[in-house]
Amino acid sequence: MKILVLNAGSSSLKASLYQFAQDLPRDPLIPLWRGTIDRHSAQATTLKVTTATNRSIHTETSSTDFSADLHKLLDCLWQGETQVIANISEVDLVGHRVVHGGAKYHQPILINAEVQAEIDRLSIFAPLHNRANLMGIRAIEALSPHTSQIAVFDTAFYGNLPAVSYVYPLPYEWLEQGVRKYGFHGISHQYCADRAAQLLNKDLKDLRLISCHLGNGCSLAAIKSGVCLDTTMGFTPLDGLMMGTRCGSIDPGIMLHLLREKKYTVAELDHILNFESGLLGISGVSNDLREIDRAIELGNARAKLAFDLYVHLLAAKISALLPELGGLDALIFTAGVGENHSGIRAAVAAKLAFLRVEIDPVLNVSNTGGDLDLATQRSAARLLRIHTQEEWSIAKACWRISAQSVTKKQG
Question: What predicted TM-score, i.e. pTM, was given to this entire model?
């Protein structure tokens, strides 16, 4: 069985093609084919494709058309140097990471017109993501109308949040209308929690974890006994931590002030909060920490402020989750920034020294591949760098749905 996974984020897309044998393996499979779209800025996009046999292509473009880039990437599955299948009809299932499933979807589901309409409706709450997710769904639909597609929701991991974590101190009627914390990056946080238990050789039920998913979008999850008790993203992916272009948590009075006194429109504020804030808004340089690092080296004070503010808010949010957990066994760093930016990890560990955590400076900058415990032996909690495997988690969910379908038919 071949399963294609599309994982569309706010500034990137990852695609992986997996080939399954009859049984579901315990460890992640190496994809037959893997492609990425990485939008560094409005004018710069990188397309990369690699295969299990080490064939690859790397293209820089100035495209601003996400849909066109996606079609170009998918063409590499069955054309050119990175071809691994004859045509899309060889793909049995396509799984999609869908960011916002609202209160309706707590399990992976086969995509039909009704599901698409609901994903579209929920785009108002996750404008950077659900629309990109829909582009992927519709691209596959156009290429192969009869290929089954499955949605795996980022919000599903938070289905058991306690009321004190998901209820906002607003009129209760609003809660009844669906205004509540939903949480996001759930696929990543769940995978990392399971992987942390493996690395530490402990039962997940015995662990208190804080998972830090740090990419262009950022969120934390407080996980105890395998259950998420709280998270930083809320009603939308705009809440919580400072991110690449998103502001995170701010005083809502700022918005009232700008609406009343400065006469901003709702659409203008929506765009500013989602696309012109965060690291980009403060630094004036980029939403990419690699470019901010280079600006800091050149003495750019705003870039330094953006870095320092990012670390300050991250450490503060981590600290705020500790009471709910009653302690900490491991802090996990994952996603593009969490996995690759040793400076962020070191700065956060230094801020959390009051917890008696200590990062090993040599291990922290090591380029050794794979997941790694970066803490010193005397650290009171482990500091784990884990490569998140969202695509693999989605592929597994698709395989299970297929297996259940076969079992039902046989029954």
Answer: 0.87
